[in-house]
Amino acid sequence: MAARSVPAVRVDRLHVVRGGRQVLPGLTLEVPRGQVVGLLGPSGCGKSTLMRCIVGVQLVTGGSVEVLGRRAGHPDLRRRVGYLTQRPSVYPDLSVAENLRYFATVLGVRRGRVAAELERVVGLVDLAARLDTRVSRLSGGELCRVSLAAALLGTPELLVLDEPTVGLDPVLRRDLWAMFHRLAAAGATLLVSSHVMDEASRCDRLLLMRAGDLLADDTLVGLRSATGAADAESAFLTLVEAGSAARRPSGSDRPSASDRPSSPPDVRP
Ligand SMILES: Nc1ncnc2c1ncn2[C@@H]1O[C@H](COP(=O)(O)OP(=O)(O)OP(=O)(O)O)[C@@H](O)[C@H]1O
Ligand SMILES: [Mg+2]
């Protein structure tokens, strides 16, 4: 089928300025369909900005973003793309069920299907027992899962999930990753951001970002063999150091402090 051969996301020379600073200086990448793709990189490298571009809520200054064969933000994509923002985006004064009913209605889920759809998504995020609880009374992890449940409404073809596992305990984290893979096996594409490098082992493919650029687009196995590193974090450091060495004037052989992934945002005024 022709449509299936189009990647889920195609980003071409994407240029974004935020707050007067160049955040994405000309990013090019693709997200293949039917996989769980990890978007990894240090805080401030532009993961959320890229995701905002993919779901069509970010002003871009150049380049293009195509999603499921359409221009990002196209009205046809509204029901086909689910988006979990990094910060919870549900109403604190409504219950879990009221929030999900509201979002299901906005998405155009048929009235007769809403109850079953609510049951399905709360089951996926293990929140069935909290349906009638007001969102303001939930724990941080539960709050995150309500937003995730909302993103799963309508079974979108592409899920853009911005740090969905932050603040969750290891059991829940493992269960959510298993659920992501079940959704991918059923045909969905998941783009999942994290700045925790050990989540790399849970992804089919990795996009490693640094300072608005793509450092690598590979599987973890491919990354390890290309860099000789044991894990994603070491591979990332190896790639950063290789890039820095290429840019560094001769005579200096020490990586700068800004080359460490734990450093503050890479993009500076
Ligand atoms: N609302 C905003 N206005 C101006 N600049 C912003 C805004 N949001 C983010 N930025 C800047 O854009 C850059 C990229 O931020 P972004 O949120 O995309 O990074 P990130 O990789 O998602 O980081 P984190 O892992 O901390 O979530 C940062 O330098 C940040 O300061
Ligand atoms: Mg972010």
Ligand kinds? adenosine-5'-triphosphate, magnesium ion
Largest sheet: 6 strands, mixed
Secondary-structure-based class equals alpha/beta
Radius of gyration: 19 Å
Average of the residue pLDDT scores: 88
Identify low-pLDDT runs.
Answer: 251-269
DSSP helical segment count: 8
Q: How many beta-strand runs? A: 10
Question: Approximately how much beta-strand content do the residues carry?
Answer: 15-25%
Shape descriptor: globular
Helical content class:
25-40%
Give me a quick take on this structure.
The protein is α/β, with parallel strands linked by helices. The protein has helices spanning 2-5, 47-55, 96-107, 114-124, 140-152, 170-185, 220-227, 232-247, and strands spanning 9-18, 21-31, 36-40, 62-67, 70-71, 81-84, 158-162, 189-194, 205-210, 213-218.
